[in-house]
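FAQ: What does a ligand-bound record look like?

Like this one, built around iron/sulfur cluster:
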Amino acid sequence: MNRFEQLTDLLDNKKYFKLVCGAGNEDANQVEKLVFVYTLAGAKGFDLSANPKIVSKAVEAISKAVDYALKLDRKILTPPFITVSIGMKGDPHVRKAYMNENCVKCSACIFVCPTDAITEKLEIIEQKCIGCGACDTICSFNGISFYHKNKNLKSLLTKCKQAGAENIELHAAVPDKSTIEQEWQMVNQVITDNYVSMCLDRLHLSNFEVAERIKNAEKIAGSRLIIQADGVPMSGGKDDYNTTLQAVAMADIVNKSKLGVKILLSGGTNSQTVKLANMCAVGFHGVAIGTFARNIVKNQISVTNFWDDDGAIVSAVNEAFLLVTESIGEIKW
Ligand code: SF4
Ligand code: SF4
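The answer part, i.e. the structure of the complex:
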């Protein structure tokens, strides 16, 4: 099977688990550890920032995991697929936070940042900021603003592909649709022989607009289209049904549009997501988990000598393995 057929097989059998490292996460050391741990845990895909250095780190981490797997009596039969994510101005996945002149330096935001991007000196480390908005929500003084990094996307994506990315995801839930088709065309020019994904949520779009956007995306991508059905972007901190309700609801809406596309559950996903989708008889082809999946291994990957600490590695892999198998069932090694 070629790589497109391998991914099709995973999707058709609901065996595709994608770890979302964060479209704005450019912390190469953290990404390397996450990719290593989740490859060993059976993840089949990674969603990364569109940055060739980050893609190269992930490729290295997969290779390290393939070697380390022998110690765990595992064989990585299908190396995971690397997706890079891009988005337009207005999309929370690709924005970066900064403190504006309203900030009174109360420090409240430090404690809610899921990626430890805000230092004690109240500086925001750009590489770590994933644009989630938790700092903005907690701030009572309107002290947080956001900016969007402008990039020459075609050249950047081509470099990402050369570095090892096989799929691209476009975050296309912003209200302005004039540039979406243009960017989607470009995504489809860079990736011609594998899946391309469009991430949609209902923050700005009605159910009707979601269906229209999918129809237009399918005209260009055909059977290579994945719709990442985003419930509430970057909201998956807790492990309960309510947190994941909107992720399942969004997949239901995509299903009811009867467009027959591949669907990934995302945006508020956790260990309950697949269970809830099955209880509600909502069809899907895979699951993408970000915040929750990163949090459950956060302590282990933060130890000082992680790469030499087999105890920390095995503990992280075991935690991640539970989540992966709860989501996609048994894994063949
Ligand atoms: S919570 Fe708001 S006011 Fe307080 S430090 Fe953060 S940005 Fe500044
Ligand atoms: S809370 Fe979210 S948006 Fe704010 S600095 Fe941290 S990662 Fe960035």
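Follow-up question: can I read anything off the structure? Yes, for example: The longest helix spans residues 310-328.
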